[in-house]
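Hi team,

Below is the intake form for Fas-associated factor 1/2-like UAS domain-containing protein from Daphnia magna. Please confirm the fields before the structure is written into the shared record.

FORM ID: S-0412
PROTEIN: Fas-associated factor 1/2-like UAS domain-containing protein
ORGANISM: Daphnia magna
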Amino acid sequence: MEDMFLREPTPSRPQPLMPEGIEAEAMAAIHFAEGFVQRYGPCHPMFFPGSLDDAMREACHQPAHDGKLLAVYLHHDGSVSKS
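The structure came back. Fields below:
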């Protein structure tokens, strides 16, 4: 009898979405978006690859007909609300 049914799967710890050492805001945003897709799949909001100031400027500091919706996503890998 094979022992494949006796082995417990080894849980892998997910990579952090915001690793330490990335100083450029644009690179951090791109890394976050790529990590989010790897962790949660392809169905996700479109993340802005830039600073919060740049996102606010693009979303809010435009004429009303050119403005865009801006949502802020707060994430903490150590959250007690894990699913």
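SUMMARY LINE: Helices lie at 25-40, 52-60.

Thanks, M.
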